[in-house]
Design goal:
about 270 residues, alpha+beta, paralog of FGE (formylglycine-generating enzyme), 3-stranded antiparallel β-sheet, 9 strands, about 20% helix
Length: about 270
């Protein structure tokens, strides 16, 4: 049995026993943080709030240290708890079914598929305000490491870094995702909050979402047409990786392929 198969077997045993300990969780303590348009950010869009951000209170929660991997998601499929998303046969950018990518983030998943995985682990998807608080890690700048981003910090299209794929800056020159944790963790101990795979959140998109969050409604509207995706991805530019950027996608991909989108889970503190 090869390394990836062994990994899947361990994960599968966790799902079937109701205990899943492979993906470590980080506790984010209750408190306010400055959500939305960062200090000195001239790229903010009109749904990101006022310059300098707005104070939003977030209760204590737990969040996965890493994005959910292909191996973890495959184990959930094998346990009968998750649906099979689009795979490498459907599109070359989908990681499921691609040899050697067991430790890459699962992608090409619809919103409900991501939520079902998290429910199987006893969790859910992060609320948008939770996600941003975790990603910022007590910073006020455009990115947690400062005002600029490059492939030294995250997996993205930084417009200049080239790799094994000629003339292709996507994925820092590799034209794909990278294994989870390929770059340094943030101050909360979380990897890949920016770049690699964009991440589904629980929330329906509302242009005035920040106004709701400020008033204590972290759940937001109970219906909509698009869900919020955060963090930017391996094939997106610098502006999309900003801590405040609010991407949106229909929850069902249909004929589209969400090769840029993955997820991580969050958990209520009991």
């Amino acid at each position: 049995m090869n390394k990836n198969m062994c990994y899947v077997a361990v994960l599968l045993s966790g799902f079937t026993s109701g205990v899943f300990a492979e993906s470590s969780k980080i506790q984010i303590d209750a408190g306010k943080f400055q959500m939305g348009c960062s200090q000195g950010d001239n790229d903010c869009e009109n749904d990101e709030g006022k310059p300098g951000g707005t104070a939003v209170h977030v209760p204590t929660f737990l969040i996965d240290k890493h994005e959910v991997t292909v191996a973890e998601y495959q184990a959930c499929i094998d346990a009968g708890n998750c649906q099979r998303p689009k795979n490498h046969k459907r599109n070359q950018y989908c990681n499921l079914g691609t040899e050697g990518r067991g430790n890459h983030p699962i992608n090409c998943v619809d919103w409900q598929q991501a939520l079902d995985f998290c429910k199987a682990k006893g969790g859910r998807l992060p609320f948008e305000a939770e996600w941003e608080k975790a990603a910022r890690a007590n910073t006020l700048s455009r990115y947690p490491w400062g005002q600029e981003v490059s492939c030294k910090h995250a997996i993205l299209d930084d417009g200049k870094t080239m790799g094994s794929v000629p003339n292709e800056p996507d994925g820092c020159g590799e034209d794909r995702t990278w294994p989870i944790g390929s770059h340094a963790e943030n101050a909360y101990g979380l990897h890949d909050m920016h770049g690699n795979a964009g991440e589904w959140t629980m929330n329906w998109y509302a242009k005035n979402g920040l106004e709701r969050y400020v008033n204590g409604d972290l759940i937001g509207p109970d219906q909509g047409r698009q869900r919020v995706v955060r963090g930017g991805s391996w094939d997106e530019n610098k502006a999309n990786l900003r801590s405040s950027f609010r991407n949106v996608k229909p929850p069902v991909s249909g004929r589209s392929v969400y090769g840029s989108i993955g997820f991580r889970c969050a958990y209520d503190v009991k």
